[in-house]
Specification:
single chain, 101 residues, mainly alpha, two-stranded parallel sheet
């Protein structure tokens, strides 16, 4: 779970340094699970090859609702909140614009 672009950059540098994988063709992705990562997705894509959306965590952090306070039968309904949908839409539009998956 990341929130800022530098976290992806730092991880890539750390991974390459400690695995000696400078020559390997490895793609680095990120999970968009926080509002800040959704809002900063264009900057994150400067360091990430792809992104995946974690709607449960994104909902939890956007709505400031603890998982234990969400009825399991209603949990998936929380991703339909307009604020969460707006963040997901931002990530998808940026991904399409930058042709990232």
């Amino acid at each position: 779970m990341i929130s800022y672009p530098h976290e992806v950059k730092n991880f890539k540098e750390y991974f390459k340094r400690f695995t000696n994988s400078q020559q390997l063709d490895i793609q680095f992705g990120t999970m968009v699970e926080t509002p800040s990562s959704a809002l900063l997705i264009e900057q994150i894509y400067k360091h990430a090859d792809f992104a995946r959306i974690g709607p449960g965590d994104l909902s939890q952090f956007t709505l400031t609702t603890l998982r234990e306070n969400i009825d399991p039968g209603n949990f998936s309904g929380n991703i339909l909140n307009p604020a969460v949908i707006k963040l997901i839409r931002m990530v998808v539009k940026t991904s399409i614009k930058l042709k990232k998956r």
